[in-house]
Amino acid sequence: MKAALRRLLPAPLLTVALALLWLVLEPSFTGANVALAVLLAIVVPIVVAPLRPTPVRIRRPWTIARLVLAVGHDVVMSNIGVAVAIMRTGGRPLRPAFVSIPLAIRDPNALAALAMITTVVPGTVWCELARDASAVRLHVFDLDDEAAFVADYKSRYEGPLAEIFEGRGAHGARRAVR
Amino acid sequence: MNAAPSLVMETIVGLLVIASGILSFVGAIGLLRLPTFFQRMHPPALASTLATWAAALATIAYFSAIGSRLALYPWLIVVLAAITAPITTSLLARAALFRVRAAGGDAPPPIVTES
């Protein structure tokens, strides 16, 4: 029974996301739309399952909510910061820099989320990941204090992602054995 | 259905659209003014993040005000842009690093690991 359910719904989170996406896109909430949403949400994950090499396991919904709010806040603040820096004519020059940051997370999905968060926040771009995922190199638009930036980056983004995808604190012992 | 939005709502929508336009414009100025490629990677993020958010919020507010239901679908643009825009930016950054290194230019060497 459980195995059959797993075959029918290989990625339950993707199923829920697709159904919600379809219902938000539809102009009206009718029985036919709901039926189509459910059908799509069941068929698409089965079709794309071979394209998703590592299954996504996430937990701690409150950590996810806090991380989303923190990223939203950071995006607004960095937008203002980068806009002011572009328009400023006098004052100190910009200090663009490459920064290497050692990483503790290894889950490919967590790394993908970290890359997305890094690049979506203006002022930082994810440039390259070490072959064994032990470190990342970013380009920073205007770097003030490298040590403070690295500590802030790890505690704001990497720590919550380690909890969400790997079920541990960023500096704690690894619980998921792989 | 199709009622005219109130003055307050029109003001909010107008301010959001203007903010979106200003942010996109500043991003474009940055793209023109900054001297190096790696610096120029950053300003377009203004257009794909806060400018898009403001435009989407304005759309949601306007169409929810004149329609009969909460129009949430513009927020999908924000979600999908947040997922897709970093892919091109990151790809450009990697390509630029590769080219600058191949030309012997001023770029950090690849990250060396023990394993």
What is the spatial order of strands in the main beta sheet of chain A?
A: 1-3-2
Order of helices and strands of chain A: HHHHEHEEH
Number of strands of chain A: 3
Computed over alpha carbons, the radius of gyration of chain A is 20 Å
Low-confidence parts of chain B: none
Q: What amount of the residues of chain A lies in strands?
A: 5-15%
Shape of chain A: globular
- Structurally, the number of domains of chain B stands at 1
Average of pLDDT of chain B? 90
Order of helices and strands of chain B: HHHH
Structure description:
The complex is a heterodimer of chains A (178) and B (115). In chain A, helix 4 (61-87) packs antiparallel against helix 6. Chain A has helices at residues 2-8, 12-25, 31-48, 61-87, 108-120, 146-166, and strands spanning 97-102, 124-129, 135-140. The model of chain A is unreliable at 170-178 (pLDDT under 50). With 178 residues, chain A is mostly helical. Chain A has two domains: 2-51, no CATH class; 61-166, no CATH class. Chain B is mainly alpha-helical and 115 residues long. Chain B has one domain. Chain B has four helices and no strands. Classes of the chains: A mainly alpha (178), B mainly alpha (115). Chains A and B meet through helix 2, helix 4, helix 5, strand 2 and strand 3 of A and helix 1, helix 3 and helix 4 of B.
List the topology elements:
The complex is a heterodimer of chains A (178) and B (115).
Chain A: H1 2-8, H2 12-25, H3 31-48, H4 61-87, E1 97-102, H5 108-120, E2 124-129, E3 135-140, H6 146-166
Antiparallel strand pairs in A: 1-3, 2-3
Chain B: H1 7-33, H2 37-40, H3 44-66, H4 74-102
